[in-house]
Amino acid sequence: EDQVTQSPEALRLQEGESSSLNCSYTVSGLRGLFWYRQDPGKGPEFLFTLYSAGEEKEKERLKATLTKKESFLHITAPKPEDSATYLCAVRDAGGTSYGKLTFGQGTILTVHP
Amino acid sequence: GAVVSQHPSRVICKSGTSVKIECRSLDFQATTMFWYRQFPKKSLMLMATSNEGSKATYEQGVEKDKFLINHASLTLSTLTVTSAHPEDSSFYICSARSGTGRNTQYFGPGTRLTVL
């Protein structure tokens, strides 16, 4: 069974204070690791997909990296508008899963001005 | 990114009534749609997976007669909560994915259901 564990559960940063969120995973055959951002009362917003160890992707102040066991979401010089819950999910190569995702519990990020 | 809409965004109903939630992919054809439920401050729990033109696949513990899913076309899936009870109150989110392989799953904005 696929497992995804995110840490920390909550992270409070000052504006401009860079940090990283962790996503550890166990999957039989990785067919993608996904990062989403979710604001309160909204659906998740797609950020990145990573497929193989060593892959990195960037978008504004966010950078996602992937190893064989975990992924990091690095936030550089965060701003208050980066405050949200960040969700990590994996898709495995299972035959009849139709590409369903297994989500971690999320990290609640709060950036103070 | 692709756009997925849900309707209604918020619904309040009386116990015992049925509620239908629509999920539409607006700018792509969704061969697969997923329905999730999310409790406060919790992550997404997959309820079922639906493929266009075939019966939905429900996750363990999800009552298929309670949560009826219809994926009538490549752009529309509906979730009907039948004989709703207060414990069905939750945030329901759909997602859609086109084709297979490396295609991303895009989420709708969610529907807040409150059963009185």
Plain-language structure description:
- The complex is a heterodimer of chains A (113) and B (116).
- With 113 residues, chain A is mostly beta strands.
- Chain A is 0% helix and 58% strand.
- Chain A has no helices and eleven strands.
- Chain A has strands spanning 3-7, 10-14, 19-26, 30-38, 45-50, 56-59, 62-66, 70-75, 84-92, 101-103, 107-112.
- In chain A, the strands form two sheets. In chain A, strands 2, 4, 5, 9, 10 and 11 form a six-stranded mixed β-sheet that branches. Chain A has a five-stranded antiparallel β-sheet with strand order 1-3-8-7-6, with no helix packed on it.
- By secondary structure, chain B is mainly beta.
- In chain B, 0% of the residues lie in helices and 53% in strands.
- Chain B has strands at residues 4-7, 10-13, 19-25, 32-38, 44-51, 57-58, 67-73, 76-81, 90-97, 105-107, 111-115.
- In chain B, a hairpin with a 5-residue loop joins strand 4 (32-38) and strand 5.
- Chain B is globular and about 40 Å long.
- The termini of chain B are far apart.
- Classes of the chains: A mainly beta (113), B mainly beta (116).
- Chains A and B meet through strand 4 and strand 5 of A and strand 5, strand 9 and strand 10 of B.
**Ends apart, CA distance between termini of chain A:** 41 Å
Structural class label of chain A: mainly beta
Overall shape of chain A: it is globular
Contiguous low-pLDDT stretches of chain B (5 residues minimum) are none
Form type of chain B: globular
The fraction of residues assigned to DSSP E strands of chain B is: over 45%
How many strand units of chain B? 11
Biggest beta sheet attributes of chain B: 7 strands, mixed
